[in-house]
Write a structure and sequence with these properties.
This protein is an alpha+beta fold. Helix content is about 20%, strand content about 30%. Strands 7, 8, 9, 10, 13, 14, 15, 16 and 17 form a nine-stranded mixed beta sheet that branches. A four-stranded antiparallel beta sheet has the order 3-2-5-6, with no helix packed on it. Strands 1-4 form a two-stranded antiparallel sheet. It contains seven helices and 17 strands. A hairpin with a 2-residue loop joins strand 15 (about 200-210) and strand 16. It is elongated, with a radius of gyration of 21 Å. It has three domains: about 1-55, Roll (Structural Genomics Hypothetical 15.5 Kd Protein In mrcA-pckA Intergenic Region, Chain A); about 70-130 and about 215-235, Pseudouridine synthase I, catalytic domain, N-terminal subdomain (Alpha-Beta Plaits, 2-Layer Sandwich); about 135-210, 2-Layer Sandwich (Alpha-Beta Plaits), CATH 3.30.70.1560. The chain has helices at about 5-10, 15-25, 90-95, 125-130, 150-155, 190-195, 225-235; strands at about 1-5, 30, 35, 40-45, 50, 55, 70-75, 100-105, 110-120, 135-140, 160, 165, 170-175, 175-180, 200-210, 210-215, 220-225.
């Protein structure tokens, strides 16, 4: 059984697949003494070296000193929130983290903004649990001028997926734009709610989940969550 060389390097925990591709492109990686090229594969027993030194797995604990990975990504439009490697543009390959991570919840492919990813499967349900009523804030652009009637209707709740959405907060931020803060996360919720009033969403960006804010992250950038952000998200969880 063989594995692509960039994946093999990433799985050692040395670097991401993207970084591995760069190292391979710089001809710094050898397999069994032969300089590897793009698309190289390795099998069991093959010796991989970087700059002449054997490449071995590093300790799981990273620069943060944590057992697990917790990051926030500014997801660009076009990236799909799935761990399925067969899906082109899946979020795991896009981030290219050296550890195995997966998204907490999702953003539609055509939506952008803040999404959390982790290697800790034990905390996903804690964060997503509906009864925790976590606030999720979005900036939304639509195809028609935003009216007070529209905002009041969205805030009261709309019947989608056979149920009424929970009351939420809305505010006009531009002629064609508004802010909305939800405490639930139904599939395509904002798009379907707006459609009930004859509006079409043209841009949707999530900027906050509870105490975690998108801040200055540019599309495609990610960062580790701070200790304060983790404590806010997981007040009952002691091991990070």
């Amino acid at each position: 059984m063989t594995t692509r060389l960039n994946k093999h390097i990433a799985e050692t925990g040395f670097c991401s697949r993207r970084e591995a591709d760069r190292l391979i492109g710089e001809r710094r990686v050898t397999v069994n003494g032969i300089t590897a090229g793009a698309g190289a594969v390795v099998g069991e027993g093959d010796e991989v070296k970087l700059d002449g030194q054997p490449l071995r797995a590093r300790a799981v604990v990273g620069k943060t000193g944590r057992r697990h990975v917790y990051i926030v990504l500014n997801k660009p439009v076009g990236i799909t929130c799935t761990t399925e490697s067969a899906v082109k543009g899946n979020i795991v390959d896009f981030v290219g983290h050296e550890q195995r991570i997966f998204p907490i919840g999702r953003l539609d492919k055509e939506s952008e903004g803040l999404i959390l990813l982790t290697s800790n499967g034990d905390i996903v349900n804690q964060i997503l649990r509906a009864e925790n009523r976590r606030q999720k804030e979005y900036l939304v652009a639509v195809n028609k001028p935003v009216t007070e009637e529209f905002l009041r209707g969205m805030a009261r709740g709309v019947r989608i997926h056979g149920e009424m959405t929970l009351p939420c907060r809305t505010a006009r931020i531009a002629k064609f734009g508004f802010r909305i803060v939800l405490e639930q996360g139904l599939n395509r919720q904002i798009r379907l709610m707006a459609a009930e009033f004859g509006y079409r969403v043209t841009q949707l960006r999530r900027v906050r989940i509870d105490n975690v804010k998108l801040g200055a992250l540019r599309p495609g950038q990610w960062r580790n969550l701070t200790d304060a952000e983790l404590r806010g998200l997981l007040p009952q969880h002691n091991e990070f």
